[in-house]
Design a protein that fits this description.
mainly alpha, globular
Length: about 130
């Protein structure tokens, strides 16, 4: 299980770090895919409001935490909402015009959450009290 966790941490963390850094540093030359008009408008709003800057900072932070293995559960907490949005973008906005990368990443993150489940178990406490008491 430990090897599986390491492999999944690398497979999930590396794309987020590389693509997050590329947003700021532009070191990859990738052609922009053709998107439907609604997707172009939505992406334009995300870019013009600097929303994507925040998302990319979360991607880099979460990816580094996963790659390092230190605070891996926190890395997952940062990345899962981003990945859910990527999967929703794929499914609802561009209608899976390419590979379902968001869905694959999300599946790997769910497995990682399962592998780190003791650290997430307290989140499922019914009638939680302030201060843990």
């Amino acid at each position: 299980m430990k090897v599986l966790a390491i492999v999944l941490r690398l497979l999930v963390g590396l794309p987020f770090v590389v693509l997050g850094l590329d947003f700021f540093l532009h070191f990859l030359s990738m052609p922009q895919p053709q998107m439907p008009e609604a997707a172009q408008q939505f992406a334009g709003v995300l870019m013009s409001t600097n929303y994507m800057v925040v998302v990319k900072i979360l991607e880099i932070s979460g990816g580094v935490l996963l790659l390092s293995g230190r605070f891996a559960p926190l890395g997952l907490v940062l990345l899962v909402p981003v990945t859910v949005n990527i999967a929703l973008w794929d499914a609802l906005i561009v209608k899976y015009s390419g590979p379902p990368i968001g869905t694959v990443l999300l599946a790997m993150e769910v497995v990682l959450i399962w592998l780190y489940r003791p650290y997430f178990a307290p989140l499922f406490t019914a009638n939680a009290k302030v201060g843990g008491g």
